[in-house]
Design goal:
By secondary structure, the chain is an alpha/beta fold. Helices cover about 30% and strands about 20% of the residues. The chain contains two helices and four strands. β1 (about 10-15), α1 and β2 (about 40-45) form a beta-alpha-beta unit. It is globular and about 40 Å long.
């Protein structure tokens, strides 16, 4: 069970990057800055992950996520999706 004093851990899983429509790594870096201290971004296979964030480079969203079936998975297919996720995380953590 995750430590309640630590921020939730979000596992990052990138797609293969065959047709990225935006800079996926830069987007995650920006999300990390905006959510600093609220959540921790870690590699998807890390221990104690609360959910998986699938960073998909395009709307096809073809990353293989079968190894993460036991987790909640949120997909980001665009910078706009990232904004929605940030707002949702901030809302959930405010409760």
């Amino acid at each position: 069970m995750p430590d309640k004093t630590e921020p939730p851990k979000i596992g990052i899983k990138y797609c293969g990057g065959c047709k990225p429509g935006y800079n996926r790594v830069k987007l995650v870096e920006q999300m990390q800055l905006r959510l600093e201290g609220k959540v921790r971004f870690l590699p998807a296979k890390s221990e104690g992950i609360s959910l998986i964030l699938a960073i998909q480079g395009c709307p096809t969203a073809c990353a293989d996520l079968s190894a993460f079936k036991q987790h909640t998975i949120w997909s980001i297919k665009s910078p706009e999706d990232a904004e929605k996720l940030i707002a949702r995380i901030e809302c959930l953590l405010a409760k």
